[in-house]
Amino acid sequence: MSVTITQARPEGSPETATKELQQRVDRNRKRSNRASNLKREANRLCKQMYAFLQEEHPSIPQEDLNVLEKAGRQISSCATHALYREHLGGASPVEYIGAATCKHKICPVCNSERSKRLRRKWMDYLTANPKLLEEYDPMHLTLTVPHTAAHGFRGEQFYVMTLINIFKEMRRNVWFSGRPEVLPKYCEETGKLLRKGRDGIEGMVYAGEYGAEVTRNEHGMHFHIHSLVFVRKQLQNRNELHRHILLAWNWATMDQTATRQHFRPDELAAIKKGNKLLTDEDLAALVPQGSTLVGLESLFVMSDKRLGTSDKWDAEKRQWKHYVSKNNLKSLISGVMECLKYHFEPLALKKHGSPEYDFQLLLELLPKIFGKPLYQKFGAFRGVTELNINPPKDAAGEAAELLQDYAHEEVINPDTLEEAEREEYTYFVACVASVYHFNEHGLRPHVRRNAPRVYLDQARTMGHALRVMIDMSITKRE
Ligand SMILES: [Zn+2]
After folding, report:
1. Does 82 share its domain with 127?
2. Which of 361, 390, 419 marks a domain boundary?
3. Reported confidence tier of residue 180, pLDDT bands at 50, 70, 90
4. Nearest alpha-carbon partner for 298 in 351, 231, 249
5. Which residue range is the domain that position 114 belongs to?
6. Which parts of this chain are annotated as the region Disordered (predicted)?
7. Alpha carbon of 316 to ligand 1 centroid (Å)
8. N or C: fewer beta carbons within 10 Å in the chain?
9. Rounded to the nearest whole angstrom, what is the distance from the C-alpha of residue 393 to the centroid of ligand 1?
10. DSSP string, 141-190
11. For residue 362, how far is its CA from the centre of ligand 1 (angstroms)?
12. How far is the CA of 100 from the centre of ligand 1 (A)?
């Protein structure tokens, strides 16, 4: 069971309470705006996909085209049923509750939902288990491999699973997980078999999770691993772990087709500068054909404003990178939330610098990522079901997930900020693409005048309304 934090009416002075309630309203409007915009993006994707399917493609097997057509059908059904709450009287303000989604890996709406759900689960988990952040240092690990436009990585253009497998292999090292034992070990006193991981050998990483990200640049498709690792506290733990990973990753990612045959002196100097535990022997052991790009850093948040003197300017994102305080649970959690943002980034499916999707690429990529776990937990998190983000099995499961995501708050009229009684609002179902938000109206949701909406007058609770909405979407799909 995951822990749900009920947000009661904020305490404190009336001014602070009002401010917090207004923030809550603004957050909901932003979320509503995002859902509608992403659905419109999904519609553009589907429209382009159908246009592509209309053309003649003698070189593409029919079964591949069928996969694309099926994806299009699935994605076009996404978020066509969403639940809204309408307050009666006044200007009838509307709040967005949640949508029935398609769960397709390339759906813009679903990727955003997954990312948000994952962060909500982590937020609940870390709040309920504060010891985790007291006892371990969370760090953000980024791994990549050398790749070229001509050869990809080891001759493979879509090397994401290779990358994931090399990472998996690396985690088996004793210095990492402390676990791998070739021979079974028995307790000397009792003669009992000591299970893996209980033999007293501690690795540096207690637990973690990762996601694979795809980006594109002039060298073609590029895959990274973004991982959140909980590292045992000890002096210089970042440098020690970084050293281990760099040496292991460099060897494991060796690629004979790599363009780099020698290190330049300035490259070696830069590597050495990144970690003061690296010795000259370590540098001599590095192979030029393997990756030397291993990012391991304390958690940070990206901010438009400079928050501290040690903040670093990120020229690409045009934001300040602010490292969060290790001694403050709240700021550590915000760092975890930032780290998790890098999972489920929309796959880079558009032609470089253009609003057009690249369906040739999509056709090649889809079979490579279909049913593949691009997001995983490892170490002590493996059995933690609260952090699972598997799609729910049925309508009841989906309604329960949505309820957990959004039902934290008591009902407030977004205009008056007063608590609303049950008689003062109603629920309706509409497609998120029929809802518009304008900056000049503070992103207040407007439902298009003649857009179809179905009022759920029978549904008393939000849970009931969500269930009815999801049933409606399933009936539609069938
Ligand atoms: Zn979807």
Report:
1. no
2. 390
3. very low
4. 231
5. 110-390
6. 1-39
7. 29
8. C
9. 16
10. EEE----BTTTBBTTBS-THHHHHHHHHHHHTSHHHHS---SS-EE-TTT
11. 16
12. 8
